[in-house]
Amino acid sequence: MKKILIYIGILSVGLLLGWLLFGGSSNEAVEHNHSETAETNQMWTCSMHPQIMQPEAGDCPICGMDLIPAKTSAEGLNANEFKLTKNAMALANIQTSLVGNNTSEEATIKLSGKIAENEEANVVQASYFSGRIERLNVNSTGEEVKQGQLLATIYSPELFAAQQELITASSMKETQPALYNAVRNKLKLWKISESQINQIEASGKVKQNFPIYATVSGTVSEKLVEQGDYVKQGEALLKITNLNKVWALFDVYENQIKLFEKGQDITVTTSAYPNKKFKKKVDFIDPTFNSATRTVKLRVVLNNKNREFKTGMFVEGNIENTLSNQEQRLMIPSSAILWTGERSVVYIKTNPDEPVFEMKEITIGNQLGDQYEVIDGLQSGDEIVTNGTFTVDASAQLQGKKSMMNKGGGKTMTGHEGHLGIEMSSTTKYERLKVPVIFQEQLKMVFNNYIKLKDELVNDDTNNVIEEAKNTLSSLTKIDMKLLKDEKAHTNWMALEKEIKSSVGSISHATDIKAQRSHFKRLSSYLISAVETFGINETVYSQFCPMADNDNGAYWLSRDEKVVNPYFGDAMLKCGSVKQVIE
After folding, report:
1. Domains by residue range for the chain, with CATH
2. Which residue, 249, 320, 326, 365, shows the most beta carbons closer than 10 Å to its own?
3. What pLDDT does residue 580 have?
4. Is residue 423 predicted with pLDDT exceeding 50?
5. In this model, does residue 38 exceed pLDDT 80?
């Protein structure tokens, strides 16, 4: 027993010595290997420009500062995936929804249109003889006239001479009946009635002025002459429209044309009478295509005896069940789609439990209301971003992932400011969409209020910031989206307006200057995008401060090239530089 205990003691001592001699070096080797791996995968970034990411140490290509080691990520994400923080998700109000098949029973196509005159009932009231308008009995457009009503009296030298011929011929009607009849017929061609001719003949006196009577009843839609004007034979005096029936003319986009046919049921509504629905049928589809607006006109005839509809009034048309009952389509909301040239992209949430996203190119088909048919690129059950899509795209660009304007991915390092205030490649150009001048003027009103809001942030005046935010919201509500006939412009503005409205609303409810400036950064990003995309007929400057937002940097718009920083007030008024001139 004594020998066994000795052997056990020797063995224990040997194991302990072996662990002390070789175990530590093994751990050191493992730690050394981990260290080497970390060094191999170490990335370097700039403290002032965190979007810069390089595989080795050096200088920042934007500001020249020394790069520092970037925090390594062990998220296990794919090359094109990126992750957002929960705070960023909440701040940008990013929302997602599952993609599913929609049957035709749920499909409703919404069309925008205007009330127009019934061209079939339009009449032009013309003068049947030359002369000077001595009196015009119609004072303005919009007046109601009845058939046979006196519209004007005209002095006509030709008619004056013809009356003298009649009086002379009447004395010779027994001897020269042919001449007499010819003179009477000449007056009839000028629309002088039989009774008027007989009156002239019986009195033997020449009338100085002759009346013009309305040939139809209706509303004067256009007044073409004024009292005292000289008119020629056949020249138009007034345009008279019968408004007992009017047309509702709807715009149908190119990719929707095949969904419509004459005789379809359509429900017409208008904001003037929100509780009324007018059920009608499609009366006509214009066979000619408007290459400027890329639309055709769809016509609906509406009864208007009660004058409910006014010409120029906006109306909305809803047409249901346009697809076969068996057909199913994969549909997604327009707010989920970003367009750039011929590409359409969405962002998929790849992890149901984490805010991890990836850009996906898709092929879209017909538009049904506010939704688009997906032909390729998505499957039923995919979870996509439906609100805050521009913000997610901006994050993808910032992290060097595949994005709307950066198809291949990769970090951008030139420092040129692009869409949404992201540091982008100098070769990246954003398309200026052609929109009506009146839309640009309405957007400019929003910009004017934004500038006042910026100035109050410079002054550190929280109360006035709130007031100017409310004024900006008021101007935003006055922008008429229906002015945008181009599909791409309409969809882009829908997405931008939602984000701008959300940002301004957050500013108006914030009572702390830091919170106001945080929301102002987001507002500036989207307004920069709007001004770049649509224009406001004014040159403005996009400026950037690298120290704003805790050294993450922030942009803003200015009318002046001189930098006045809204993010620090008096403390750092001149911090920043002009990054872009938006013509």
Report:
1. 2-69 (no CATH), 82-106+327-406 (2.40.420.20), 108-118+243-320 (2.40.30.170), 120-241 (2.40.50.100), 437-582 (no CATH)
2. 249
3. 84
4. no
5. no
